[in-house]
């Protein structure tokens, strides 16, 4: 894992019919020549283009397997690590920022990972337009932008309308796993997820960090300094 913290994820949470506000601002930053090259070479191989039509997972991945959606994968280190430890699952990663997309393509190439597909698009539109109900085995949302100023809280990703849409896409027994290092956001996540009728908590409150989610060096450094990290794992009811 890199010592450099992964960028915050900025993705849409507004009502699917109106969506007057986007919860992210595309800040591409500077892409290295290597990242640009890996996007140019990798996305034709591992990328999935946005289109307002149901996604055929078996066609996209070249096999039928449980599919996990990861929203906002940052630089892709965590996505790559999880995919390697869970080769029986497919992972569809969404990120709007070019440097992260390029870096994940780089990791896929260097490590020979075959069970990741990459989308560079607004996650809300992908969920709304491309993912069928009861089609996902899981959803990962790790360290989304906390929008810590109170007036910006409405831009947070984990809010009731979007959680409802995610829950509909889960198969019975499928899960949503969120993680944050902002306590205020953790409280909101717990409230929102607990209020969704289709979901049930797998823990009494916050969950222990599942073994499949790697502890990054940045996160470990924060824990040693006394900073908290909260995991939440909810399951769709049968």
From TrEMBL:
Enzyme class label: transferase
Binding site for S-adenosyl-L-methionine: 70, 95, 122, 145
Region (Interaction with RNA): 151-156
Superkingdom: Bacteria
Pfam family, one: Methyltransf_4
Keyword Nucleotide-binding attributed: no
Enzyme Commission number: 2.1.1.33
Family annotation (CDD domains): AdoMet_MTases (cd02440)
Pathway(s) where this gene product acts: tRNA modification; N(7)-methylguanine-tRNA biosynthesis
Gene3D superfamilies on file: Vaccinia Virus protein VP39
Keywords: Methyltransferase, S-adenosyl-L-methionine, Transferase, tRNA processing
Catalytic activity: guanosine(46) in tRNA + S-adenosyl-L-methionine = N(7)-methylguanosine(46) in tRNA + S-adenosyl-L-homocysteine
GO terms for MF: tRNA (guanine(46)-N7)-methyltransferase activity
Ligand binding (substrate): 149, 181, 216-219
PANTHER family in alphabetical order: 3-DEOXY-D-MANNO-OCTULOSONIC-ACID TRANSFERASE/TRNA GUANINE-N 7 - -METHYLTRANSFERASE, PENTACOTRIPEPTIDE-REPEAT REGION OF PRORP DOMAIN-CONTAINING PROTEIN
Record function comment: Catalyzes the formation of N(7)-methylguanine at position 46 (m7G46) in tRNA.
UniProt xrefs under HAMAP family: tRNA_methyltr_TrmB
Protein family: Belongs to the class I-like SAM-binding methyltransferase superfamily. TrmB family.
Name of the protein: tRNA (guanine-N(7)-)-methyltransferase
Natural source organism: Niveibacterium microcysteis
